[in-house]
Amino acid sequence: MAERFKNWIGGEWVDAKNGETFISTNPADPADALGAFPRSTAEDVAAAVEAADRAFRDWSRTPAPKRAEVLYKVARLLEARKEDLARVMTREMGKVLNEARGDVQEAIDMAYYMAGEGRRLLGYTTPSELPLKACWAIRRPIGRIGLITPWNFPIAVPSWKIFPALIAGNTVVWKPAEDTPRTAYEFAKLFEEAGLPPGVMNVVFGYGEEAGRPLVEHPKIDMISFTGSTEVGRDVYTRAARKLIRVHLEMGGKNPIIVMADADLDLAVDGIVWSAFGTTGQRCTACSRLIVHEPIYDQLLEKLVEDTQALKIGDGLEPGVQVGPVVNEAQLSKIHQYVELGKAEGAKLLLGGERATEGKLAKGYFYKPTIFVDVTPEMRIFREEIFGPVLSVVRARDYDEAIKLANDTTYGLSSAIYTRDVNLAMRAVEDLEAGITYVNHGTIGAEIHLPFGGVKDTGNGGREAGLAALDAYTEWKSVYVDYSGRLQKAQGIE
Ligand code: NAD
User: Fold this and answer.
1) pLDDT band for position 1 (50/70/90)?
2) Contact, 253 vs 276, CB < 8 A?
3) Residues 233 and 318 in one domain
């Protein structure tokens, strides 16, 4: 029997009201269960929102430096438990241990960064157009915020939402992904241990339509912050629009790397392999389109294939493994369907294109790193997010064509160019339609103190991380104090 875990509502650990559960399993070995979790419904969500509502008054009035003290404690607990959390994460969603450590490290960095904001949360003062009148603008909390997160960064992505939301004085209800409830549970426990007052953060486990949707639609939820697929994000946005609430969306990507003929090819190949096959291609910023300047096409491909073939696939907990399993069976079959589609569309399969089943791999959801060449921009493998270890390669005659290909997508999260020509590099920073551009580095590796997010169908204009996160999780209030003792009218009205 799998160990049984509960929702965290108003500071209590409680079962779903219907008593139902779902099981979380290890994608490297689905017989290994990480626990049974409440299969929550609208009733449980409502209880969590009520708890967040009750906690809001006191938490929002607690001075921000005091709120920060709790965040500092969570940061220290995260540091102390980093290894345990990373191991649970690898066991639950498959990313290799080193990357899982990086995932936890992002949360540590974000916790310290946002705790520091407890003594800033800067607004601004500005002169009035009238005498004897003062003006300033301050950040206020939004209220009760619903957080819905994906499984691919089960601690980092929630941390980008939870820490800025809490430091700003909001209370939250978090619905973690159904593929990573155990990791979410272990993370949430640290907030309890750090002494976060009851109800300030609530966790409701369950499936998207059963628990996520009621959170979006609950009348007392003042904002939704969602990270996940564009398809679900569109549904969330549409439903939330009826309530006219703020919605922060971080969604899919189809991120390009351009390699120009003058690039350092060894450096480029290192970056491509890391960006396309790191985290088994399951990053929103993963590189899935490679655009190669014609003169170096054959040379680059040869080295890329050689280095990709050398990647070690296996259980992410084993030392030396570079590519773990994909998250679940549905994702495995989706990836394979795209590979079949790519072949049917006329792309040439250069490498991979099948499950990895040698020895112990047979029991898990392992897929070989896959490279398609002779891809054209009309093909669906060039256009749609596959979210697995599949790279589509196209040729470009020159810089302008490379940029045109890179921008020929509905997504706009990350992008990269390899070149030694500083002029081209600077032009690409302007020309690439994406929220993030790297020069001489692959598409992955964002740092927490810079804004993170995308343009086009990747987002709806907001940014996470960095100071931009405060814009997402606060409302501006403008304050006017007239100390003239008489009625003064703005805009020169007599
Ligand atoms: P998903 O959209 O299937 O699920 C994300 C979350 O939404 C889960 O918690 C799920 O339970 C919930 N959900 C599902 N249906 C819902 C509904 N109808 N109403 C409310 N909630 C619902 O995504 P996923 O498979 O968990 O994650 C992979 C996706 O996330 C990829 O598209 C990836 O690019 C994207 N992603 C984006 C970023 C970013 O910052 N841009 C970061 C990580 C992942």
Assistant:
1) confident
2) no
3) no
Which residue's alpha carbon is at the smallest distance from atom 14 of ligand 1?
Answer: 208
Instruction: Please work out whether the CB of residue 251 comes within 6 Å of at least one atom of ligand 1.
Output: yes
Q: 43 with 73, same domain?
A: yes
CATH number of the domain encompassing residue 32: 3.40.605.10
Ligand 1 site-directed mutation target among 39, 45, 152, 174, most atoms within 8 Å of CB: 152
**Total structural domains within the chain:** 2
236's CB contacts (< 8 A; 6+ apart) are 148, 212, 216, 224, 226, 247, 249
Q: Look up residue 471 and give its two tokens.
A: 């814009």
Q: What is the pLDDT of residues 330-376, one digit of tens each?
A: 999 999 999 999 999 999 999 999 999 999 999 999 999 999 999 99
| Whole-number Å distance between alpha carbons of 53 and 84 | 33
The whole domain housing 278 covers: 255-439
Q: Which of 156, 25, 181, 183 is nearest to 99 (CA)?
A: 156
Residue nearest to atom 19 of ligand 1 (CA): 213
The Å distance, Cα 263 to ligand 1 centre, comes to 35
Same domain, 424 and 312: yes
Pairwise CA distance, residues 321 & 189, whole Å: 29
Residue 306 lies in a domain: yes
Contact 327, 365 (CB under 8 A): yes
Instruction: Judge if 240 and 265 occupy the same domain.
Output: no
Asked whether residue 185 falls in the same domain as residue 87, the answer is: yes
pTM for the structure as a whole: 0.98
Catalytic annotation on 284?
yes
The tens digit of pLDDT for each residue in 10-69 reads: 999 999 999 999 999 999 999 999 999 999 999 999 999 999 999 999 999 999 999 999
490: in domain: no
Q: Say how far apart CA 391 and CA 275 lie, in whole Å.
A: 10
**Position 19 in a domain:** yes
- Nearest of 161, 73, 48 to residue 110 by alpha carbon: 161
In-domain check, residue 2: no
Shared-domain flag, residues 282 and 344: yes
State the distance from the centre of ligand 1 to the C-alpha of 232, rounded, in angstroms.
7
Give the pLDDT confidence of 73-93 residue by residue, as tens digits. Answer: 999 999 999 999 999 999 999
Residue 456's CB: how many other CB atoms inside 10 A?
A: 18
Judge if 126 and 37 occupy the same domain.
yes
- Torsion angle of alpha carbons 101, 103, 109, 110, nearest 10°? -160
Cβ 249 under 6 angstroms from ligand 1: no
